């Protein structure tokens, strides 16, 4: 142990003669602890909310969606499906037909977006089957007296239907007759109810089998587009570009990030803003470090003069007080990391704070613990503490030993 570190620790420990220094040191450590712990908890919770929202969005949506630019039906869709499936890191391709219809029941009527899909293919590209509250998503392809339909939770509640009940699908694009256009109508049996956690999807989305959709809308063997699943949703941007290059015009490949860019950009901006605001707690605590070193220098003028007279260099004297500040910074940051981790683990494993599930799509505060969060906050805290100790430590090195001993 070099003498700068030894003296710095001695100055921190010897507080009986000066209670003010002891108090300032304690406040400095406490401020850094609270700042670091608060930053870790808030950023981890925001990461948890973002991750939860991401999973909810991807529950009903694929990583990549492919349509024609002119939104016309795709005729040679089986060949296109094989081309997409041949792209590296593509794990599934699900053709779909999408349109808007009216659903009616004895209790109510509602406008919905209907998606005709192959249930087995759709379960490879989305996690919609995991959100089924009633019935099974695979039952869409089940044969019976009427074709099957899966409804969102809010939509089923608005229509007042449960699994096994019948609803009537009405298309505004009907046949032209002597009395004008006659809407096309058909009965469907509810095979299940899903809850994605997103009100918009739960209230306006319904699934039917792709063959039933082709028959109802009077389409030949065509599809509207493709939903694509990937091995890692973070690779969706690069994979969509590769698919776009392979299919070329008139196809249009969009990844889930670009389709929800405004939402996730807002979340990212909010997280950065919170990080900057909460970092001010550590900056405020660093002013206590400046005060503590300044008071210590004033209190130890005689000691500094003696060390200078014994041959200690200016850099050595400055190093004593730099280390003093860093010891406080390291101690506060370490305790803050432990406290922040403990709070995150408690929030993640125990239902300390209950949330209304119908508003936030979850019943507890979500927490996502990431190593990088701890690393970035630790580095920021140590850098701020180090910078705080630079000026007072340099001033201590400029102390004139002769003048200090003369006045003592």
Summarize the SSE layout with pairings.
Blueprint: H1 3-13, H2 19-60, E1 64-68, H3 77-85, E2 90-104, E3 109-117, H4 119-125, E4 132-135, E5 148-152, H5 153-159, E6 166-177, E7 180-194, H6 199-204, E8 205-209, H7 210-216, E9 225-230, H8 236-247, E10 251-255, H9 256-259, H10 261-299, H11 301-309, H12 314-349, H13 357-360, H14 371-397, H15 401-407
Parallel strand pairs: 3-8, 5-7
Antiparallel strand pairs: 1-9, 1-10, 2-3, 2-6, 2-9, 4-7, 5-8, 6-7
Any overview of this molecule?
By secondary structure, the protein is an alpha+beta fold. The protein folds into two domains: 3-57 and 263-407, no CATH class; 70-248, no CATH class. Helices cover 56% and strands 20% of the residues. The chain has helices at residues 3-13, 19-60, 77-85, 119-125, 153-159, 199-204, 210-216, 236-247, 256-259, 261-299, 301-309, 314-349, 357-360, 371-397, 401-407, and strands at residues 64-68, 90-104, 109-117, 132-135, 148-152, 166-177, 180-194, 205-209, 225-230, 251-255. Strands 2-3-8-5-7-6 form a six-stranded mixed beta barrel, surrounded by four helices. Strand 2 (90-104) and strand 3 form a beta hairpin. Helix 2 (19-60) runs antiparallel to helix 10 (261-299), helix 2 runs antiparallel to helix 14 and helix 10 (261-299) runs parallel beside helix 14 (371-397). The longest helix is centred in the N-terminal third of the chain and has 42 residues, at 19-60. It comes from Seleniivibrio woodruffii. Its main location: membrane.
